[in-house]
Specification:
By secondary structure, this protein is an alpha+beta fold. It is built from five helices and six strands. Helix content is 20%, strand content 13%.
Amino acid sequence: MVLTNEIREAVAARPAHPRLSRMTDILDYEYAAILLTRCEYDGAFATPPAPLALATTERPRWLDVGGASAFHESAPAYAKKLLPTTPRTELAENRAIMLTARAADPNAGKRPQDAHVKRGAPTGYQPYYYYVDGVVSRDNFRCTIGARITRRTISAGPCGRARRCPR
């Protein structure tokens, strides 16, 4: 506990960002948030500070080469295929994840809604398995991909793999 207090004091002695907010939760975990201006947000990445002299663990590699490069160095071969090229060894190098709507997805942009619990206005969300026009019969049972399902139907699911639809 003495070392923890020394580290806390050493961190508190460093110059802080003017809009830094430190928080401690009910489990005594500490968090920090910094409200950035537009200029700071759009600007260059800041250089991470040098490690404290009291640090008992080695400096994480990603602080020197960037997160994308550190991931690529330590990732198994199948995960490296996710990146189209080898990342540059720079802190600013990252591989942002973007969400894009699928053009063939009938539920893109629609909030899921339970068919049996009516809350709020209808959203038009279509469950993966459904009955055409809400008429419950064997001949009206469908997958969202549009295939009519019978006991012998084998269709490609959203993942692209062939599978037997449920009976």
